[in-house]
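Below is how a single chain appears once it has passed through the pipeline. First comes the sequence as given, then the structure the pipeline wrote out for it. We keep one example in the README because the format questions we get most often are answered faster by looking than by reading.
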Amino acid sequence: MSSSNSFQPNRYRDRHFECDAVKILPGEYYATTDDTLIVTVLGSCVSVCLRDPKLNIGGMNHFLLPSDDSTTISSVSESARYGVFAMELLINQMLKLGADKNRLEAKIFGGGNVLRGLTLNSVGQRNAEFVVDYLKAENIPILASDLLDEFPRKVYFF
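Resulting structure:
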């Protein structure tokens, strides 16, 4: 089994899909070469599902904010809670597993405005804009996206 992550994964057997699964929480990421379902639940957070289709290496992250606006750098601010770090951590982990950055493809989800009436400075909107801009700058094609609106999402990445 070849997988890697920044945490002790929450592994379980998914009864609906009858397969091994890993659930990731905000600020976590997971990458693997195995046939493992990766699952998360999103509100205003965003998850990026990346894969190298040639080598069947895939991974997902779950971040809360696009960036850390503080001026101090610490291990907390360099965590996967922030989009810029979450993307770097996931991509680097996939490269360690053998993925080729030139083959990576993305599907992106989340950024919902789940707190109705709170439209000023929407975290979901900022997260969605960040991830689209980041992937464009890194030349990683977005194959599918389900961003914004007012609904939470549960994402299953096979």
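The chain has a mean pLDDT of 86.

See the next section for the split statistics.
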